[in-house]
UniProtKB/TrEMBL annotation:
This is Nucleoside-diphosphate sugar epimerase. The lineage of its organism: Bacteria, Bacillati, Actinomycetota, Actinomycetes, Pseudonocardiales. Pfam families: NmrA. It comes from the Bacteria. Residues 2-223 form the NmrA-like domain. PANTHER family: PRESTALK A DIFFERENTIATION PROTEIN A (PTHR43162:SF1), PTHR43162.
Amino acid sequence: MTILVTGATGHVGRAVVDALVAAGQDVRASSRDAAKLDVPDGVAKVSADLEDASTLDAALDGVSAAFLYTRPQGIEGFVKAAEAAGVRHVVLLSSAATLEPDSAQSRIAGLHRAVEQALAAASFASTALNPGAFATNTLGWRADIAEGVVRTAYPDSRIGAIHERDIADVAARILIDGSHDGESLALTGPEPISFREQAEVLADVLGRPLRVEELTKEQAIERMLALGWPSDVPASVLGAWARTLREPSLVTDLVREVTGNAPRTFRQWAEDHRADFS
């Protein structure tokens, strides 16, 4: 069977490709421009734009299962093309925001829920992966770390940062065996870890001191907007961080339950990405 991985230039998408190749699967990787794909030998490459239905028929031809990034624009076209191609199972990279009690007021949750609902109404099986904080978010500190500092609001906020390879391993397992139909899986790392503790781990792994500089909420929003975040997103993210000062974010053992392996620690992530900070 052929498994399509959309968004294969992303951290998670590329890790899904690697996990499937390691499992001996026939993999087809896609992005808007296939020429930009850097994938292992033997992996087919195809250009596909989830917002342009005319590109999807060729990408989905002969595909039995697909890994999908959340992109509300064009989801109807994807569902139609996947049904026509006979796809049996779609695994969606969604967000933990859809599982939060206040998700009705969250723009992030709304965008992801729209795709979850479209897939749930389709004729094929689907599974939503709902990770919380990505360990890769700390790559956004690279410029600051080059100055010997980590700048963040709520440095003692404790989150269950997850390694992208754990998300990918869960996705690969489900794509292969077709399990967890109709489920939403809240994926996390093995323990809540604060931004301050992440900085300490990075300092140890990189072999250089890092001081933590606490930003105000207003300063953090300004930085997020400068990085291109939608204007109505930073406040909700910062609100979630503030809540974990009082109560650490949820940690689950679903990575182990699905894959049989314990989720990777933040230190493992830092060691895997050491070169990204050099």
